[in-house]
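Problem 12. The chain below contains 181 residues. Write out its predicted structure in C-alpha cell notation.
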Amino acid sequence: MLALVTPVYAQPNPTTQVELLFVQNAEAVVYENGTLTLKGVSPSVIFFSDRPKRVAGHVALPGFLDAWDEGKDSFAEDPPNAALSIVGDGIVTSVVVEIANPQLQGDELSYDIVQVLEGELPATGGTSSLFIDDLFTESEKKGAGRGAVTGAIFGAAAGDAGKGAAIGAGIGLVGNMVKDK
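Solution.
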C-alpha cells in the first residue's frame, strides 16, 4: 500500500479518476550502459494532477516502487515516459526517456532506459528531477491496476487506502468495459 505523507486537494471531492504525474528528485545522476541512476534520491515521490481535480502530495518511494508492476496496465507492462531535468554548472539539460525496471539500493534509484525519445543523456549530472508520465496512459484501456493505485492514494488521504484501492480498481475495470463496447 502507498503511504501518503501530505495530501492537498483544491477541490473537496477526490473520488473521480485523475491523471497523476510523479516527480523524483536527486542530488546527482549517472548514465552508464543503458542504466540511469539517481544518486541521493529523495525518500518520497511528489505526485500532482492538473485541472479540474488539482491533487498533490507525497508518497513514500518504496510504496511507489511496489506499485510499479501492480495490475494489467502497470508501468511494468507499459513503461512510462519521463522527462529528466539536470542542473549543473548553471546549465539545465532536459532529456525525455522511456524508463523501466526500477531498482532501489540505499539512496540510489536506477532505471533501465528503454529508449531516449528526445535529447541526449549525459554520463553525469548534478541536481536532477525526473518527471514521470501520468499514471493513466493515453491508451484506450486505462486498467484496474492503475485505478487501484490511484484509489489507494486517494484512499490513504481519506484514511482508508484499501477501500480506495478497491474502488479505484472497480472504476478501472468499468472504464475498460465501457471502452470495449
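Discussion. Residues 8-180 form one domain. Students who got a different answer should revisit the alignment rule from Section 12.3.
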